[in-house]
Design goal:
Helix content: over 70%
Order of helices and strands: HHHHHHHHHHHHHH
Structural class: mainly alpha
Low-confidence stretches: 1-5, 30-34, 36-46
Strand content: under 5%
Radius of gyration: 33 Å
Number of strands: 0
Shape: flat
Number of helices: 14
Number of domains: 4
Length: 417
């Protein structure tokens, strides 16, 4: 009996132990699953973290491409188009990756609650940013090595002197162009081009001084000579960009003046149409709205000093007044009239949007946030889309270019504040 009792006791004790072990395993499993679910839930509920990670990668990629674009132009100026062919191709492929990054970032903004999908999008954004950094980094390193080769010093120095001479010849014309612009427009209308000739002259002087320091017979170490030549080349490149900015400002202001002239012609026709519509308005409120819009148009269409001072500013005022007239006449205009107005208004709106894009790009620079860059990219996309729509859908094209202007203004605000 004692033996049987002992066996029973042992079985009972073993059963209890087994139950305890099973219970412990179950409890542990439940805790692990709960923790995993908790972590997963926290990840899915952390859109701010996702946006920060995606935004950081976007900024990194955008900056890297900006640096690559500048460096490849610098490489072309130094060594010629053929030598920089692979570098240019790498930049082109990087731009395609950048477009995909912006597309994914836009989806993250549009679908903030798509937790798992946004995590996957962010992972891909980071992967593409890493690929851009790696690819362009390899090309940049190859050209850094090429710039450090001592055997290229005489050739680079000779090319540097030739380019400085050519730049000084262009600087004379750029100064004349700038002075002509200042005689016609307010200094602020020229933007960075207002003092570009003086800036270019200083940089050319410094480049020439460094070239003299690196000339044959210098007692400086070879590495120092190569660094001096590289710095002189960078100063020359910056001077060339400043000189080119004057011609770009001339084109921009000429476009604005032409757009302003065309919009004034359209404004005169719209004014006549509006006055006729006011006389036959179906009710008093409509008549008053049309009359007020015409008064706004008269103020904006004046040929006063503001027009000469800054055609872009005058263009913005006149386009806003034209929009007010369009709204007041919307119910009385036929579809054909709306299409005709859209085509006429498009050119002025495009010039204004392109000018605002330049301002936004300057504001974003290399330190703008992901949000500012995203709005800038939206503006570029809308402007590009408007051009393709103009022939088939002028109203849609006008709406698209107006959205481009809005996005560009938003980008500037986000970059500055």
């Amino acid at each position: 009996m004692e033996l049987v009792g002992g066996v029973v006791s042992a079985l009972v004790a073993g059963g209890v132990t087994l139950l305890v072990v099973v219970a412990a395993v179950l409890i542990g499993g439940i805790v692990i699953v709960a923790r995993r679910r908790g972590r997963s839930g926290r990840l899915l509920r952390a859109p701010d973290d996702i946006r920060r990670r995606a935004g950081s990668a976007l900024v990194r990629a955008d900056d890297r491409i900006g640096e690559g674009e500048a460096d490849v132009e610098f490489a072309i100026a130094q060594f010629g188009e053929r030598a920089a062919q692979d570098y240019r191709g790498a930049v082109r492929r990087a731009r395609a990756d950048r477009d995909e990054i912006f597309r994914l970032h836009r989806l993250i903004d549009d679908e903030p609650d798509a937790g798992l999908a946004n995590r996957e999008r962010t992972d891909r954004i980071v992967m593409l940013a890493d690929r851009i950094d790696r690819t362009l980094g390899e090309q940049a390193a190859a050209f850094r090595d090429r710039r450090s080769l001592e055997s290229t010093a005489p050739e680079r120095l000779e090319r540097l002197r030739t380019r400085v001479t050519e730049a000084r010849a262009r600087l004379t014309e750029a100064t004349r162009q700038r002075d002509a612009l200042l005689a016609q427009h307010a200094r602020t209308a020229l933007g960075a081009a207002a003092d570009a000739p003086e800036r270019a002259a200083r940089e050319l002087d410094r480049a020439e001084g460094l070239a003299a320091d690196a000339a044959p017979g210098s007692t400086a170490p070879a590495s120092s000579v190569m660094a001096t030549i590289s710095e002189a080349e960078r100063l020359l490149f910056s001077a060339e960009e400043a000189i080119e900015s004057v011609a770009a400002a001339t084109d921009r202001l000429d476009d604005a003046a032409e757009a302003l002239r065309r919009l004034r012609d359209d404004a005169r026709s719209a004014r006549t149409e509006a006055l006729e519509a006011a006389q036959t308005a179906p009710d008093g409120d409509t008549g008053v709205a049309i009359t007020e819009a015409v008064a706004q148009l008269d103020r904006a269409a004046g040929d006063g000093a503001a027009s000469a001072a800054d055609p872009l500013e005058q263009l913005a005022d006149l386009r806003e007044a034209m929009d007010a007239v369009e709204v007041s006449l919307a119910s009385s205009r036929t579809q054909a009239q709306r299409l005709a107005h859209a085509r006429e208004a498009y050119h002025a709106a495009r010039v204004q949007a392109e000018a605002q894009l330049l301002v936004a790009r300057d504001a974003v620079g290399s330190g703008g946030s992901a949000g500012a860059r995203a709005r800038l990219e939206d503006a570029v996309d809308e402007l590009r889309a408007s051009r393709t729509m103009l022939d088939t859908d002028p109203v849609g094209a006008l709406d698209a270019v107006r959205r481009a202007l809005t996005h560009a203004r938003d980008a500037e605000v986000l970059a500055r504040y």
